[in-house]
Amino acid sequence: MKTIPQLPLIRALRLLGTFLAVLAACFAAGLAAAHAAPPSVQPLLQGKWPAWPRVGSANDVKVVGNYAYVTDYDYESDDPVSGPRGLEVIDMRNPANCVRVGGYVTNGFAWGVTVVAGRIYVADDQAGLVVLPTLPNVQFTVRVDATPGAPFTLEAATNLNAPIPWTPLLTTNVPAMPFDYVDFDARLSDKPHKFYRVRQP
Question: What φ, ψ does residue 179 adopt, rounded to 5°?
Fold first, then answer.
């Protein structure tokens, strides 16, 4: 029976041990470097509205798209206004410069808000639930009453000068009428006038 020499095996194990030690040292150095590296994720800009000091309390908020819908107990600003403020809609596209774009003054204090399918639901104190399908400068709801099940196209234009530049908003067919379409492209600063029409082939 032939005996296998032990010397090469011992050398191989020593080399393997040295390699593993170097690998562990490199891994530890990599971890230390990773912990020392500055974070690559930057925090978002902070923003608030209004920019001036306020009193009262914001009771609830719902964010949909670029807007924050805030139920505001009351506030005081440069204009001496206080009391029930209801719903305030804030444009948050630039968090460092939040801008009020719309609102609704409730009968009492507004305690909560939610936005579902384009409609804004506000808890209006003892007046109960207020449903806002349309809010100037924020959204506009168009109700279509056409032949059920038949396709139709809803179009919009910003002026009625010939030739009228009708732009299709959607083409659909629904089994029941009426059908409500919520247009969020209704900022008065961009489009002071907007007209709608429905076409059925």
Answer: -120, 130
Amino acid at 177: M
Q: What is the pLDDT of residues 20-29, one digit of tens each?
A: 454 555 555 5
Average pLDDT over residues 45-53: 70
Q: What is the 3-state secondary structure (H, E, C) of the chain?
A: CCCCCCHHHHHHHHHHHHHHHHHHHHHHHHHHHHHHCCCCCCCCCCCCCCCCCCCCCEEEEEEECCEEEEEECCCCCCCCCCCCCEEEEEECCCHHHCEEEEEECCCCCEEEEEEECCEEEEEEHHHEEEEECCECCCEEEEEECCCCCCCEEEEEECCCCCCCCCEEEEEECCCCCCEEEEECCCCCCCCCCCEEEEECC
Q: In the chain, where are the structural domains located?
A: 58-132, 140-199
Q: What tens digit of pLDDT does each residue of 134-176 get?
A: 999 999 999 999 889 999 999 999 999 999 999 999 999 999 9
Q: What are the pLDDT digits (tens) for 52-74? A: 666 567 888 988 888 898 888 76
Q: Letter for the amino acid at 147?
A: T
